[in-house]
Design goal:
Layout (H helix, E strand, L loop, with lengths): L2 H12 L5 E5 L3 H7 L4 H22 L3 E8 L7 H24 L2 E6 L7 H14 L5 E9 L1 H17 L10 H5 L12 E4 L18 E4 L9 H12 L11
Parallel strand pairs: 1-2, 1-5, 2-4, 3-4, 5-6
Helix pairs in contact: 1-8, 2-3, 3-4, 3-8, 4-5
The structure holds farnesyl diphosphate.
């Protein structure tokens, strides 16, 4: 049995696999710098880790995987790096769509797709259409995503619904907010993995992470394999989640 299979066997014994895993894929730039390579090479290498995370999630029985691929703040990076990231997104879609569909993955996007240039936008629309109906794993790609912008958008939509008489003011509660986020209808993440050792949330899923267990690993994203995912899940299985209550 190889190392990944041994970890998977331990996960199966442990029970209580996280239904929803979210990942901040960080460290592509440092991975490239350590090798005296341009930053986009790190992002390209990071695509392999995306595949590892998707396949590992399916194997482990995770239902929802949310990957932070590109933040609203990332639009402030040098145009060359933005161009490289968008090209990689298109390449990922061209190369992986058939495989994702074959593996029963349904892809969704969280974020403001209006900011993407037409080729990237069309590729994303194709990916969403071609994977619709997958039942093994829901893969959420956060692209041009900002959690504060998402919450402001939900507030705007709530205000509109109240103004138009579709919602009573006293019905503006937590569920009403959740239903207007990009993640409407999904369970909140049980586990957040952040690579590269940074201990920040970076404007990611601020509402949804209220009671999420955090796992921070020093591994840089391009070095991340399914074994690292399994180690995070095993660590999660050892946690006691109290949701603000006392131990039973
Ligand atoms: C953070 O590393 C990573 C990103 C901003 C982009 C993530 C993109 C990928 C993993 C590849 C493409 C993914 C898909 C789904 C097609 P960083 O550049 O901030 O690294 P640093 O902190 O070391 O500089």
């Amino acid at each position: 049995m190889n190392a990944a299979a041994a970890l998977l066997a331990r996960i199966r014994v442990g029970g209580g696999v996280p239904r929803h895993v979210a990942v901040i894929m960080d460290g592509n730039g440092r991975w490239a710098r350590e090798r005296h390579l341009p930053r986009p090479v790190g992002h390209r290498e990071g695509m392999k880790s995306v595949r590892e995370a998707v396949e590992g999630s399916i194997e482990a029985g995770v239902e929802v995987l949310t990957l932070f691929a590109f933040s609203e703040e990332n639009w402030n990076r040098p145009p060359m790096e933005i161009g490289a990231l968008m090209s990689l997104l298109e390449e990922y879609i061209a190369r992986e769509t058939a495989e994702l569909r074959g593996n029963g993955v349904e892809v969704h996007v969280l974020g403001d797709l209006g900011r993407l240039k037409p080729p990237a936008r069309e590729a994303v629309d194709r990916l969403l259409a071609e994977t619709r109906g997958g039942t093994k794993l829901q893969l959420n790609l956060a692209i041009s995503y900002s959690s504060r912008a998402e919450i402001a958008r939900a507030a705007r939509r709530l205000a509109e619904d109240v103004l138009q008489g579709r919602l009573a003011l006293e019905d503006v509660d937590e569920d009403a907010v959740s239903l207007r986020l990009y993640t409407a209808g999904l369970p909140d993440p049980d586990l957040l993995v952040r690579t590269s050792g940074e201990r920040r949330i970076s404007n990611f899923l601020l509402w949804q992470l209220a009671y999420t267990e955090l796992f921070i690993t020093p591994v840089l994203w391009p070095d991340f394999t399914r074994s690292h995912l399994y180690e995070a899940i095993l660590d999660y299985q050892g946690r006691e989640r109290r949701f603000g209550r006392v131990t039973a």
